[in-house]
């Protein structure tokens, strides 16, 4: 099984768990950014102090938070056609999860589309509102047809 640059084999349970924890920490950091407008550097410092940071794929936390903040405008524009309301009316949790999913769909082609969507659904079930995971699933599934047209064998 291939090894990732940062440690365990890419397909291993340990690697998947570390990546999930990275997404969960990124969710928390993006929540701070969306709700409190905190600086990215302060957010990443705060996340690094959390107990669960040691078990996360730390480089991926950084990639997600920095990348999403840097590309926020483009990500919002990509998500907008698939939302049923203005982005400012989304719950901050679902908003952050959608940003993570959109970022991974557009900027992390090594992560399969199905993994991006499934991870977003699982995180939404754990942290979002009662039916938030359904909303996340619907939006990201439709966005994936645009972002990953080649992967789906469809025209963009």
Question: Could you walk me through the main structural features you see in this protein, from its secondary elements to its overall organization?
Answer:
It is a single chain. The N terminus is likely disordered. Helix 1 packs across helix 5. The chain has eight helices and no strands. The relative contact order is 0.12. It has 156 residues and is mainly α.
Poorly predicted regions are: 1-13
Mean model confidence by pLDDT: 88
User: N-to-C SSE series?
Assistant: HHHHHHHH
CATH topology: N-utilizing Substance Protein B Homolog, Chain A
CATH class: Mainly Alpha
Major beta-sheet overview: none
Categorize the overall geometry: globular
In short:
The chain is mainly alpha-helical. The protein has one domain: Orthogonal Bundle (N-utilizing Substance Protein B Homolog, Chain A).
Task: Present the secondary structure layout.
Elements: H1 13-36, H2 40-48, H3 58-70, H4 72-79, H5 92-107, H6 113-127, H7 132-147, H8 149-152
Observed structural traits:
single chain, 156 residues, mainly alpha, N-utilizing Substance Protein B Homolog, Chain A, 8 helices, disordered N terminus
